[in-house]
Amino acid sequence: MENTIHIGLLGCSKIAPFSILNPVKEIDGIDVCGIASSSFERAKIYADQHKIEKVYESYDAILKDEHVDVVYIPLANPQHKEWAIQALKHKKHVLVEKPITLFPEEVREIEKTASENHVHVLEALMVQHHPWQKELKDIIKSQKYGNLKKIKTRISFEIMGGKFEADNYRFQPENGGGCFIDESSYWLQFIQYMVGLYPVDYKGSSKFDGVNGCDWNFDAFLTYAEGVQAEFNASFDRASNATHWLEFENGEIKIHNFFKPCYGKYKIKFNIQDHQTGEHSVMEFLPENYYVNQMKFFIEVIQGKAENISLKESFERIDMMRKIYHSAKETLNSEVGTK
């Protein structure tokens, strides 16, 4: 009996070797069986390069193939909803890159379609598939260092290099371009897991002075009833950085380079400063790969061995993302109007 789970790729993405093609080599009972692209020739070159067996004539063709069990969607943000829903209607499980959609109501549409067709959807936020987040949440709950006071996150990618592609959605505000929408999913998932996404106040700030009026630097702030504050800085023109700082009443925890396990099996380290004792310590986790963990999790969901992550969480993130983004737009318009 055939027990292998077959994955089909939509699009010739740069992320797929990290997120799918390499991880499946470490997991039994799963393979990438084919690829489709808006360009057959480009898909053929990509398939040859990555040793993918079958190239389909179109996205529709790969969805109609009953041999395909799971569809991976790393397309441009505006295309996520359309092709996720089409895949679900063809009874395919769907792994879709972040953000799952650009608008919260679209998450509801995807959720409804998945339920009607009895298949699963997972938003590909790989950072949540690692034990370090649970360990950190347990530290917060334990109050070992007193009450949590502030969480600060910095994520930046220097993506310009003096050039940009006019058709790249990251440089098109109307298609979810800019650093905040590109990077905030990681921050919002982290905050959501640690303290929830129900702040009493939120605010966004950006000059929107990047290419085509995109936000090249963005600051976001959340304030909670208990007094906890969360700050986020996203950037497209600063050196690569991915850091969380947690400030407690009696201590501080820093997590540097938390994206590193995207690129292989690497360690995550907590640098801990205990203000009461003056001691500095390091908590170190065994080397793991986010994408391998993510794929193993989704396979267990499909096989009925694990409960999936609810799309309610994705809805909350997209909803908060839009609110903060609009807050920054309204602030900028107000400032321009007073000049």
UniProtKB/TrEMBL annotation:
Pfam families linked: GFO_IDH_MocA (PF01408), GFO_IDH_MocA_C3 (PF22725)
EC number: 1.1.1.384
One Gene Ontology MF term: oxidoreductase activity
Keywords (A to Z) from UniProt: Oxidoreductase
InterPro entries cross-referenced by the UniProt entry: Gfo/Idh/MocA-like_OxRdtase_N (IPR000683), Gfo/Idh/MocA_domain (IPR050984), GFO_IDH_MocA-like_dom (IPR055170), NAD(P)-bd_dom_sf (IPR036291)
Residue ranges occupied by any Gfo/Idh/MocA-like oxidoreductase N-terminal domain in the UniProt entry: 5-121
Gene3D superfamilies, sorted: Dihydrodipicolinate Reductase, domain 2 (3.30.360.10), NAD(P)-binding Rossmann-like Domain (3.40.50.720)
Residue ranges of every copy of the GFO/IDH/MocA-like oxidoreductase domain listed in the record: 135-247
Family membership noted in the UniProt record: Belongs to the Gfo/Idh/MocA family.
Name used for this protein in its record: dTDP-3,4-didehydro-2,6-dideoxy-alpha-D-glucose 3-reductase
Species: Paenibacillus pseudetheri
Phylogenetic lineage: Bacteria, Bacillati, Bacillota, Bacilli, Bacillales
